TrEMBL record:
Keywords: ATP-binding, Helicase, Hydrolase, Nucleotide-binding. It comes from Actinacidiphila rubida. Transmembrane segments: none annotated. SUPFAM superfamilies: P-loop containing nucleoside triphosphate hydrolases. This is Helicase conserved C-terminal domain-containing protein. SMART domains: DEXDc (SM00487), HELICc (SM00490). The keyword Hydrolase applies. CDD domains: DEXHc_Snf (cd17919), SF2_C_SNF (cd18793).
Amino acid sequence: MGQAERQAIARGRRLHAAAQAVRGDHAAAVEAVRAALKPMHDAEVGRALDAIPVARLQDVTEGRLRLGNVEKSGLDTVGRVLEAGPYRLRQIPGVGQRTVDQMLAAARRLAEAVHETAAVHLDVDRPEPRSTALVIALHLLVEAGPDARRAVDRAAEVSDGLGPLLAEAGPAAGRIRMLLSGRHKRARALAAVAGIRALADEADRAGLPELLAQTSVNLLRGPASDVAAWVDFESRSTEYYGLLAEISGRQPDTAAAEGFLPDDVTERVRTQQLDDTHLRVSLRGYQAFGARFVLAQRKVILGDEMGLGKTVEAIAVLAHLAAEGQSHFMVVCPASVLVNWTREIEARSALRVMVLHGPDRHDAFADWKGRGGVAVTTFEALRGFPEPGGGEVGLLVVDEAHSVKNPKAKRSQAVALWAGHCERALFMTGTPMENRVAEFRNLVGMLDPDIADALEEGDALAGSVAFRAAVAPVYLRRNQVDVLTELPSLQRTDEWEELSASDEQAYREAVRAGNFMAMRRAAYLRPAESAKLDRLREIVREAGENGQKTVVFSYFKDVLGVVRDALAAGAAEGAPTFGPLTGGVPPARRQAVVDDFAGVAGPAVLLAQIQAAGVGLNLQAASVVVLCEPQIKPTIEHQAVARAHRMGQVRPVRVYRLLATGGVDERLVTMLEAKTRLFDAYARRSAMAEATPDAVDVSDVELARRIVEEEQARLGVAE
């Protein structure tokens, strides 16, 4: 009835109008994306249906259809059958109405399935009007950033809460209306005014009016230019595709995105809240689930396949715990990715980050102890720091955690000691185990000794269901193929080369000496007549002509030196060569080299030792990968390829593995096929194949000895 009530109602109306405006502006931006997406999706569905032979209709109808005359009439695909329609189908000799009905019903069922699964890919190298329109529409929402998502969520809460209160408080907006209202209606109006005032006060404390105003400004900006939108898409395609998946409803299969966890664990994770106040990036659905899993289960291994954004999931957990009041966090990682971790934390969160590395690391440690933040250090440096007190560290993050699977190693013991003193620990690895359950058990033992003690070799043999049930409380893994529908294609090619006479001579000398490592790199020892080197130059030249960047991996530094000299001699004219990145290159310098490589406008070549650059670094700038020789462990190759073929890659990736016929390469490939199958079945899919781990567990030394002996026998040479 008084001025105070009228002012409260006016505040509520302004806040309600601002919230409604943000919701409307956001809905309009989303609708623009849907409108731009529809013609592209329809075209993709059409292409897919035109690629399905009409014979597939037999599968849908369990062989009841006779389609011979239909195919002869030129309707040889499901797409053409649907386009023809019932009238034309009925004109085909021998095709009755019943057959037409069955045929069209089966074709529509296939079309529905294709419609659900067809994914739109944005080709940055071949923009056309439809894809450009979609990128421009997405650009508006990407530019608005995660603050827009938060603003829309809060706007929905506020407008839904204020709407009924404003209606109920109506009589209090005017003195006469209030006097004419009955006693109960006046009481309800005053209660509603109190509710409005409380909501408005809370909104002011949270800075919501400013957030809503800024979001409206961001959402009402004019469209970006074609060039600006495409350039931005290439630099942060992950965010574009994440929005596209959310808006289109083409989210990955829920069970796959949740790692096929048992229902009880899944339900606990789903109910876990995730505070993104300190986060500067939007999470994909599976990433948010991963972060919630870490929070709900407290001590876990996140085994997502490389390229899915485990680092972002870890940062989301750090941000949540910081919002809850935790102040100290520790990240332990290989030296090669120290710089990457600090950059990611600074770019994707509002958290303070400190590097504890180098000669001043103990001073930095003392500063971190006093001021807090996210400390990033190496396995080696961690051993020199005093163990934390109970509850002092909010979260211990261990990147590339498979590096500490050997309990006898000092680095493993240091990590285990810290993990034991932290209430929360996150181990991250795309390859937590290669051959033996024992290695995985060692990691689990640092997090949950009871589960580790109960985990036996036979659990893996029982299949994925038994294995996942056993490790579900501590282990979550998702695969690219299950959750990244937009990832460009990956094509692998084994390039078999016949050794030249000079190559053969060098190889025989290495075999005679019984030198396994010399055998592996013999094909490069005489560059002037090296068959592998000739093919490598051709691949680099072809990539350069297509404007593509190439990364060349080898286990051997001297092989990379040979490649560098060969490319410098003119094979990569117009394509600058960077590196080689080796274990001797300081971490900061490694990242700088990668940045320089990525910053070249056009073709470039990066040379990298596979152990040094195959882990931790992001090489999405490269769309051609060359492996100079097969690796002893298949996971090393998987890791190297995943540096380029990962979330954020916008181009198809072509992988060439250079192999020499008849020698060590051929024997390695044959012997390791079983290892690769095991890894795919057990580590990647968490389901055992028919073989036991012991049947294919060949140590590096034993494998080398066997190959040397077999090659000496084949060639009739010995020391």
